[in-house]
Each structure stands twice: as C-alpha cells, then as structure tokens.
Amino acid sequence: MQKVLRNTITMKTDKIILDACCGGRMFWYDKENKDALFMDKRKVEKGAFENNWNPNWCVNPDVIADFRNMPFVDNSFKLVVYDPPHLYNGSMKSVINKKYGLLNKETWKQDILDGFNECYRVLDNYGTLIFKWNDSNIKHSEVIKLFPVKPLFGDFSGKTGKTIWCTYIKIPKQLKH
Description:
- By secondary structure, the chain is of the alpha/beta class.
- The chain has 3 helices and 7 strands; from the N terminus they run E-E-E-E-H-H-E-H-E-E.
- The protein has helices at about 95-100, 110-120, 140-145; strands at about 15-20, 35-40, 65, 75-80, 125-135, 155, 165-170.
- Strand 6 and strand 7 (about 165-170) form a beta hairpin.
C-alpha cells in the first residue's frame, strides 16, 4: 500500500473551520465563509466541463494539499468537515469523477483512514468532526469500521438518499496516538 509521508512544513491559521476536501463547496450555504479554510488537492477553473449544467462550478481552494497529509499544526481547528471521494470505479473521463475525485481501488481503505487520522490530528481538543459519505460504491458501515473512534450520531438511515453524515468529537482521553 502507498504510504503518504507527513509534511515537514506546518501552517498556522486563524480560521476555525477546515473543509478538508472542499471540491466545489456544494453543501456550503456561504461558499466564502470567512471562518472556514477550504482545502483540496486540485484546482479546477470555471467552465472546465463542456455542456455542464453549472458553468460556474469550480474548485478553488484556499490551500492545495492532500487530505492524507495536511500542512497544518496539530489541534488547529474547532470544526473539520471530511468529505472525501466516495467512488473507486470508473474513469476520470466521467464528469462525476472529474468533479468529485476517484479513490484508488487498491489503497482506498488506507487512504480514507489516513485522511480521518489527519482530520483528527488537526482538530482541536473537544472539537467536532463531520464525516460525509455516499454509499454508491462502498457502504458507510464498511468505512466507519476503519476509524479509531466511533461516531456519536449521524444520518445512517438512507432515507435521504445514499448520503450519510457522521459526527465525532475529539475527547483527549479517547486518543490512542
């Protein structure tokens, strides 16, 4: 399995919220929230997709970095949103995969775990982590088993489609690092 090396440069920020895989900021009401730092590993200009139903869609992160290897100091954020790619099949030629990314079929479990661990690392003590997942390709029940802590609560019903949300809080005594 591919191991992601830890950044040696650490970044401090005055932002209290991190969207670790911001993409097009689709679920944000305020896509320019002044308290949030938007991170993604890529940048995509407006108009990148032909015949796109949303010609203004773009990926324009404040910081370009991989969710498995964040450049932030420990305990930097009060709230972290972790919404990684959900699919490992298909090609990067499809619009959905271009927009939301594609997991590596061989390393996805380690990649998702590494991302969770990084989100937890940069989350401040007693901070909140929101994990968003879509069951289209990989069931959330399989994914959350990978994580070192259990979610407190979330939408696991599937009544709202295939997307689920899980909520975690970082309580120092839970940490086993």
